[in-house]
Amino acid sequence: MNIEEITAQITDIVIKYAPKFALAIITLVVGMWIIKRLMKFIEPQINKATKDETLGTFLGSILGTLLKVMLLLSVASMFGIDTTSFIAIFGAVMVGVGMALNGSIGHIASGVMLMIFKPFKVGDLVVIGGGQTTGTVDAINAFNTVLATLDNKRVIIANGNVTANDITNISGQGIVGVELTYGIAYNADIDKAKKVIQSVGDECPYVLNNPAQGVVVANLGDSSVDLATRPFCKSEHYWDTLFYMQENVKNSLMPRELASHSQTWRFT
């Protein structure tokens, strides 16, 4: 075969497939653009229908993925590829991938469970794993849940690890009690210390009147009398209330009312 024949064959192939290739590229680009625009319209409608932004976003991502898969199959058919066979091959590949990614599939299943049972939603303040991770839920994805911590760190937890651990939803009830314990010396004036702690709570702009705050003697320790209080606030003001109480109780209580032992002054 001489160079002229090779050139002629290449030219024939280009003439035959160039229009199909160009049409496929145009279809792919335009299709992706249409899907993007369509999802911008559909996602708010899903959120409105489900009345749950978290679930709406999750369903929207699944729908967007399905539309893209359908687009790719359409593009493949333009080249004369038998999409039926392609789907069968794709299914077989997915089975193999599923076996290799057994843990990842489990995370997807856990993500679905989070969507169904809704132990928390985007924006909730939660504690995952018995206090190991605390943060505000930023996103619930197919494979993982994203938390934003108080110091603005981004923590990504696999959904399987979320559902396998204890979950405390601090924002779950709308209002939350801030558990605080203060240790004072045995020779301190208990009534005065209780009034100081109560007054700080009364002055805190985040503390609610109902349920009312109280201060009680919770424990007689080896070196301190432990006073416990639980001011209630809106869930979004949890940290503001905790830090306000911590600082102002410390500043309000006289040094002689605090036990000298370093372990006496504390909060939980």
Structure notes:
- The chain is α+β, with helices and mostly antiparallel strands.
- The protein has 3 domains: about 5-100, Helix Hairpins (Orthogonal Bundle); about 115-170, SH3 type barrels (Roll); about 175-255, Alpha-Beta Plaits (2-Layer Sandwich), CATH 3.30.70.
- Helices cover about 55% and strands about 20% of the residues.
- It is built from 7 helices and 10 strands.
- The chain has a 5-stranded antiparallel β-sheet. The protein has a 3-stranded antiparallel β-sheet with strand order 7-9-8, with helices on one face.
- The model is unreliable at about 255-268 (pLDDT under 50).
What would a concise description of this structure say?
The chain is an alpha+beta fold and 268 residues long. Helix content is 53%, strand content 18%. The chain has helices at residues 3-50, 53-78, 83-100, 102-117, 159-163, 190-203, 238-252; strands spanning 125-128, 133-140, 144-148, 154-158, 167-169, 175-177, 180-184, 215-220, 225-229, 232-234.
Average per-residue pLDDT, rounded, comes to: 78
How do the strands of the widest beta sheet line up side by side? 4-3-2-1-5
CATH architectural category of the largest domain:
Orthogonal Bundle
CATH topology of the largest domain: Helix Hairpins
Give me the secondary-structure topology:
Elements: H1 3-50, H2 53-78, H3 83-100, H4 102-117, E1 125-128, E2 133-140, E3 144-148, E4 154-158, H5 159-163, E5 167-169, E6 175-177, E7 180-184, H6 190-203, E8 215-220, E9 225-229, E10 232-234, H7 238-252
Antiparallel strand pairs: 1-2, 1-5, 2-3, 3-4, 6-10, 7-9, 8-9
